[in-house]
Design a protein that fits this description.
Blueprint: H1 3-13, H2 19-35, E1 39-41, E2 59-63, E3 71-75, H3 92-125, E4 134-136
Antiparallel strand pairs: 1-4, 2-3
Length: about 140
């Protein structure tokens, strides 16, 4: 028996998701997405970075909503320093949940940092004006 046949046998024994189950999962995700309500934010639409290996890859810019030329930069690669640790016997659902929770935590930290930078900018450069809000999903 070779490694290829061992893998083939293992894959053959794994439970197969039916087409009906796949479509049910897609439909459930679509409905959950539709059920979300938008929230308001002062964070403007970001300018997305070029792709790697460009020297500016990973740098997301959040320009001033008033167009004054200022922008706040976030280096998405440099801020991802948390180690990723997955238990050896974790299920795919557990792994998915762990990564989703990690992404939520990181997202909250970035949102807080960007909002603070925007508020500081408006206090210094646009005294007496509040950053405009927009709806996001």
């Amino acid at each position: 028996m070779t490694a290829d046949t061992d893998i083939d046998e293992l894959l053959a024994r794994l439970p197969q998701t039916s087409t009906r189950e796949v479509f049910a999962q897609i439909e459930a995700a679509r409905r959950a997405d539709e059920a979300r309500t938008p929230h308001r934010t002062i964070i403007p639409e970001p300018l997305l970075p070029p792709l790697w290996p460009d020297p500016g890859s990973g740098i997301v810019r959040f320009p001033c909503a008033l167009g004054c030329g200022w922008s706040h930069e976030e280096d998405t690669y440099a801020t991802d320093e948390d180690p990723i640790s997955v238990p050896l016997r974790a299920s795919s659902e557990e792994i998915g949940r762990m990564f989703a929770e990690r992404a939520e935590r990181r997202g909250a930290v970035v949102r807080e940092r960007v909002e603070l930078a925007i508020r500081d900018h408006f206090a210094a450069a646009h005294e007496g004006r509040n950053p405009p809000e927009r709806e996001v999903w």
